[in-house]
Amino acid sequence: MTPNKQTVNEYMAAFMVSDHERILACLTDDVIWEMPGIYQHVGKEAFDKEIENDNFVGSPTIQIIKLIEENDIVIAEGAVQGNMKNGNKLDAVFCDVFEMENGKIKKLTSYLMSKNANLKFE
User: Fold this and answer.
1) SnoaL-like domain: which residues (predicted)?
2) Which of 14, 94, 95, 118 can pair with 23 through a Cys bridge, CB separation 3.0 to 4.6 Å?
3) pLDDT per residue over 15-46, tens digit each?
4) What are phi and psi of 42, to 5 degrees?
5) pTM for this entry
6) What's the CA gap between 59 and 51, in Å, rounded?
């Protein structure tokens, strides 16, 4: 497994246990996390605040279905489940595009689609 894929796997594993220190160790200082049309967070501090989103309780369950790399881009396709504070359950599929720099995540673009058509993310 390449160093970039190892970083993405570590990032996902750390996210499933909400381990901020491990997650942040996978990122460049000027990291960008974007969900087009929803948000864009710039820098580790902003990223850190989103790790445990106010709309959710506990840590998510994440399954990686595909992990593909070309040059310094890693694409992860998978599924995620989580519990929301309003009592709803998140059951979604995702495609995350990781732009890497020196083995760390420089930019993450997340595309997320709920399997429940009535569920709102906000």
Assistant:
1) 8-106
2) 14
3) 999 999 999 999 999 999 999 999 999 999 99
4) -120, 125
5) 0.90
6) 9
Closest CA to 31 of 99, 119, 116, 89: 99
- Is the C-alpha dihedral spanning 70, 29, 96, 79 positive or negative? positive
pLDDT in the model for residue 75: 98
Q: Given the DSSP bridges, would you call strands 27-35 and 104-114 parallel, antiparallel or unpaired?
A: parallel
> Each residue of 50-93: pLDDT tens digit?
887 788 888 899 999 999 999 999 999 999 999 988 888 889 99
Q: Is 60 in contact with 15 (CB distance < 8 Å)?
A: yes
Amino acid (one-letter) located at 102: N
Report the C-alpha gap between 96 and 64 in whole angstroms. 10
Angle at CA 106, nearest 5°, toward 9 and 101?
A: 85
What is the length of the chain? 122
Instruction: Compute and round to an integer the Cα radius of gyration of the chain.
Output: 14
The SS3 of residue 54 is coil
Please give the structure tokens belonging to residue 82: 């989580």
